[in-house]
Design goal:
single chain; 277 residues; alpha+beta; Beta Polymerase, domain 2; Four Helix Bundle (Hemerythrin (Met), subunit A); 2 domains; six-stranded mixed sheet; elongated
Length: 277
């Protein structure tokens, strides 16, 4: 696999040879000193170009060959006329290359605090602070956000119980794996955020939980994922309720918010009855 220096040289050489490319920016995990470094990290690159209305890069994609042999490509457009090429190459390198209007450079470079200017042909980019992940830090929930999440995590359990009773597995798995577990993930993020005085980034979708949580708590969390067997889903559903209760009571005390014990008790009794039908 190509290393960092080789990939950066390819990117910068490409930009130097194209007069329409005026500024090159790197952002994402590659400029985050708190992110684990490994060979799977993406290269998130932004080219600020003159004449964004010229879509020749989209019409003729032969230029991509300069960066390697593709496994797969995805190209997406944005409302501001910018567009991006998500490129996975066969040697393992992943480059996400976005083309933006040079006229918006000083607006866009400030949207992501994890940004670093690699090339500025006209010296037009405003001074940036050192890259940091402050916009990705876990934020302390408001009382309204707290109440809404806890209510929804208990509410959704009635859907899961109904789906099991009806033998509607796709519905059950969506409600459990997507809605309920996502709620648990948010609860865990708040738990980690509180432990670090709301100065911590847990990574997209909690991908850094393993290194941020105590081993026992992390093991309990991943054990909540269920199989497609209804008996297992039932067992995991009640385990999830216990997990929410334990973590929720601890967090509510420290945050100064109310834990919805009535919802907890009533829903637990209700789904127990559904299970016995």
């Amino acid at each position: 696999m190509r290393g960092y220096k080789e990939v950066m040289n390819q990117v910068l050489e490409f930009a130097r040879d194209d007069d329409t490319i005026r500024v090159v920016m790197l952002n994402g995990s590659r400029v985050n000193i708190n992110a684990p470094v490994d060979i799977m990290q993406d290269y998130d690159i932004v080219f600020f170009v003159s004449g964004i209305e010229n879509i020749s890069y989209k019409l003729n994609r032969s230029w991509i060959n300069q960066f390697g042999e593709l496994v797969i490509l995805q190209q997406n457009d944005f409302e501001d006329d910018s567009y991006i090429f998500l490129m996975q190459f066969k040697d393992g390198v992943r480059i996400d290359l976005r083309f933006c209007d040079i006229k918006r450079v000083n607006t866009i470079v400030k949207e992501d605090t994890l940004s670093k200017i690699l090339m500025d042909k006209d010296n037009i980019v405003d001074q940036l602070s050192l890259p940091n992940d402050k916009i990705y830090l876990v934020k302390k929930p408001t009382e309204e956000e707290w109440d809404k999440l806890l209510n929804n995590m208990w509410w959704i359990q009635t859907y899961i119980a109904k789906g099991i009773w009806r033998d509607e597995l796709p519905y059950v798995k969506y409600m459990y794996d997507v809605i309920l577990i996502d709620g648990v993930r948010r609860l865990l993020s708040w738990y980690i955020g509180m432990q670090h005085e709301w100065n911590i980034n847990v990574g997209k979708c909690g991908k850094w939980y393993k290194r941020l949580l105590e081993n026992d708590l992390y093991s309990r969390y991943v054990s909540l994922y269920s199989s497609v067997e209804y008996e297992d889903v039932w067992n995991k559903l009640f385990k999830t309720g216990e997990f929410i209760r334990e973590l929720g009571i601890e967090l509510s005390t420290k945050l100064g918010y109310k834990y919805p014990m009535n919802d907890d008790t009533n829903v637990t009794e209700y789904i127990t009855k559904i299970r016995m039908i």
